[in-house]
Amino acid sequence: MHEVLPKVTSDVTSGKTPDLHPAEPVPPAGARPAIHRRRLLLSTVGGLAALAVPAGARLWADRVPVRGPRLWSTADTGGRMALPAGPRESLYVSGYDGTVRAHEPRTGAVRWSRAVTAADDAEPPGGWPLAAGSGTLCVNSATAVRALDAASGQVRWELSVPDWRDLPAEQGIVMAGDSVLTGYGNALRCHDLATGEVRWSTPANVSPLPLVVGDTVYVPGRTGGLFAFDVRSGARRWAQDAVGPVGFAPTGHRGVLHAVSNDPATGASTVHALDAASGRPLWQRAQRHGLGGLAVADGTVCFLSNTGLTALDARTGDTRWTAVVPSGLGRGMSSVAAAGGVVYVATNDERLFAHDLATGRLNWRDEPDRLAADTEYTHIALAAVGLALFRSGRTGVRALGTLPAA
Question: pTM higher than 0.90, yes or no?
């Protein structure tokens, strides 16, 4: 609405300049002063706005955080986890401080800890990769592959390797029977679990993101493609060039591989499904944004893209449901895990959301005491077993949900 200005007229006889903003009329003595409605409205809105800012800040600061089904928590930092046999054995956590710890899964108590490297700025966010199985814990570091006794943390063997700090932050290590597979020096290498001796290695240009299913190890290429090798001999079983550069290890479920390729030019991603036995493409699903994680369980593929949590049929790629998850306020990566009919999303500001895997309905959420943007990069790791969830990050390790009977 435009304000109408008073009509301007010339007073030639008096020579006076007309007043474009005449004074308000003075009310007669004893009369109630007139209220200028426009001024009252502006002053009221301004006053409310001034009150709303500090009031809103106080309400946010004084809010009662939403609590999920917390079991225990510890201040020991960690970003990588291994849970070889569920909550019946130990939960192994690789910390930001270069230390590996074994926690009692039911209480969080530390059974043992061992310094693997001194903490420094060059360490990967979230600690060094680790894998557990057959009573042994294997850990990567900047200079070596180490095998530790899972019960005591004592070093069984240590193998020096070329420096691998130029490798992706999501580099991995996996165990398969009496073998340990990890990537360094531009190749995937298989070590004897008992001695650390190298059994075989792949040709160059292989990314250090292995996945073992049965007697086959699947690994992406550094510049694209996906490869399958025999775990025992290292013989290549198939190669698939249809998959672009992969940002994290593929997943295997019911004879199907699921991998995510990223387009660095556009920031978009594509979810690929391939036949695990032959590498034949089954379907693919393009996304406008990069993915914050991917998990597969009960015939369902779940991934986080921007603020959308999507569930697909693992065999066909058809959408089953979508849900909205708030964006993380911090820096770093969010994570997704699925087990026990639940899909979990952990955002990089320490929030956690649990959705029903069949319907997408939010079962519960969990928030930290202080929700704020973190200037330090953080990697949130999740390990889900049945209805129990273990979460680790810069603020510590936390267990939520329901643990199975002892």
Answer: no
